[in-house]
From TrEMBL:
Family: Belongs to the UPF0098 family.
Protein name as catalogued: Phosphatidylethanolamine-binding protein
Any matching Pfam family: PBP
Entry-linked InterPro entries: PEBP, PEBP-like_sf, YbhB_YbcL/LppC-like
Gene3D superfamilies reported in the protein's UniProt record: PEBP-like
Domain of life: Bacteria
Length: 192
């Protein structure tokens, strides 16, 4: 099938409400520094066959009325698609497994994770990279929030991004990449 007849990349998960193991109701062993740190699984389908790298953000737009800004929960850049396990007999050829954020540095060290909002100087939280440069699970304080996971696929790695990059650096790198990345996203509910 020609690329121009495809709908484009699709992001999905086996849930629409983020399960407790990946959010504020997680078991104590899934927390670090008061934050749930086990990332949830998701699928990436129909990626442009020319794409070689994945990048994503997981953010909470509903945090804006609570704290004055969109909360960054997780960002990843320069994940080589070839480093992921493929099962071409599975309807989901690319799967991001549970707890990927904590396993990523050992599994695929060339992939970088950005700072999340726990790294903000205004919060005075942990300086532990395992907390501030990894997945931070949803902990909405006021009501259920709608979180947004957006994934981009590019043909080349994004230059200039190192461990602990800020989300704006990822967005600038995507804009300046010289290509139109394949992209999709999904909203997932985090329970209060």
């Amino acid at each position: 099938m020609a690329r121009d007849t495809l709908v484009g990349m699709k992001i999905s998960a086996d849930f629409t409400v983020i399960p407790d193991d990946f959010a504020k109701a997680a078991a104590p062993e899934y927390f670090n520094g008061g934050v749930p740190v086990v990332s949830f699984p998701f699928y990436i389908d129909d990626v442009n066959p020319e794409a070689r790298y994945l990048h994503w953000e997981f953010v909470d737009p509903d945090s804006i009325p609570v704290c004055g800004f969109e909360w960054i929960h997780w960002s990843v850049a320069n994940l080589p698609i070839g480093a992921l396990m493929y099962d071409f007999n599975d309807s989901h050829a690319l799967a991001i497994p549970p707890d990927f954020s904590r396993q990523l540095p050992a599994m695929i060290p060339e992939t970088v994770q950005g700072r999340n909002s726990s790294a903000s100087k205004f919060l005075g939280r942990s300086t532990d990279p395992a907390v501030i440069m990894r997945y931070n699970g949803p902990q909405p304080p006021d009501k259920d929030h709608e979180y947004y996971l957006q994934v981009w696929a590019t043909k080349k790695p994004l230059p200039g991004l190192n461990q602990g990059f800020w989300l704006n650096e990822l967005l600038h790198a995507l804009r300046n990449s010289g290509e139109a990345p394949d992209t999709d996203g999904i909203f997932l509910t985090g329970k209060a």
